[in-house]
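Run log // design_07
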């Protein structure tokens, strides 16, 4: 029996443009499979809110819809992934977003003897992303994601924790969507070929309803984790 393989924690990557549903699906997979969602967007927003030096540098770039420097993002990710709660496996939501980040992740995983189980590409049409992003809100109590039309809170309250405080992200404005999609196509989309070449690419139709996408994601995950 190969103990090494059995104890190796799962590493899943979610790839997709802003608004594709990465955060929504990562939270559902986290519950279903006991993995930990690592969102570099959430980590960066926390750094901005805390006013750390990295957060101060990241803020303007995030507001403009660009990508934060690889150096900052890799440092934040390396720090978080080393935490105890990540030992059963992680779902990377929004990382890597550049080839440099993908290579840094490969180096990190090879140093710990881990492997990527799958990079799951959420396939969507750019034209639907403005509506998804401009209708997005997040529960301030527990972080659950909502959408004005596609996943409204129940009578104005979060179905998970009951909070009525729903926040909108500073960068979720129609004006920044174009630059964020541009950054995605120029810098992140090449990772689809990168992970295809590595033999770990999977794709799901993320234009379908949330629960249908979740079912397809779960099938993929079951097929790649032991
Ligand atoms: P979305 O959910 O719209 O895809 P995220 O919450 O993942 O957005 O990220 C918000 C912003 O944080 C991005 O527009 C970018 O400025 C920054 N960011 C998040 N992850 C990364 C990353 N891996 N590399 C560079 N910038 C990042
Ligand atoms: P990402 O993390 O990729 O930026 P989110 O998971 O935050 O995307 O989803 C963006 C918005 O679209 C949220 O308001 C979410 O509720 C909604 N959403 C997510 N998946 C779907 C879907 N399959 N159909 C319709 N709306 C969706
Ligand atoms: Zn909540």
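design_07 sequence
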């Amino acid at each position: 029996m190969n103990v090494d393989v059995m104890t190796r924690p799962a590493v899943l990557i979610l790839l997709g443009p802003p608004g594709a549903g990465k955060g929504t699906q990562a939270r559902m997979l986290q519950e279903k499979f006991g993995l930990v969602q690592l969102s570099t967007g959430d980590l960066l927003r926390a750094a901005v809110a805390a006013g750390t030096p990295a957060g101060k540098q990241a803020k303007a770039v995030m507001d403009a819809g660009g990508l934060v420097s690889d150096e900052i993002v890799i440092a934040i990710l390396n720090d978080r992934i080393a935490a105890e709660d990540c030992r059963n496996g992680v779902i990377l939501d929004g990382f890597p977003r550049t080839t440099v980040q993908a290579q840094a992740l490969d180096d990190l995983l090879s140093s710990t003897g881990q492997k990527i189980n799958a990079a799951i590409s959420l396939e969507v049409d750019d034209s639907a992303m403005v509506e998804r992003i401009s209708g997005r809100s997040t529960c301030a109590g527990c972080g659950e994601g909502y959408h004005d039309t596609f996943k409204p809170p129940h009578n104005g309250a979060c179905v998970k924790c009951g909070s009525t405080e729903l926040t909108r992200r500073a960068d979720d404005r129609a004006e920044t969507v174009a630059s964020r999609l541009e950054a995605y196509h120029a810098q992140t989309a090449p990772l689809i070929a990168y992970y295809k070449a590595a033999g770990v690419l999977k794709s799901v139709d993320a234009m379908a309803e949330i629960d249908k996408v979740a079912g397809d994601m779960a099938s993929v995950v079951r097929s790649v984790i032991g």
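The two ends are 14 Å apart (CA to CA).
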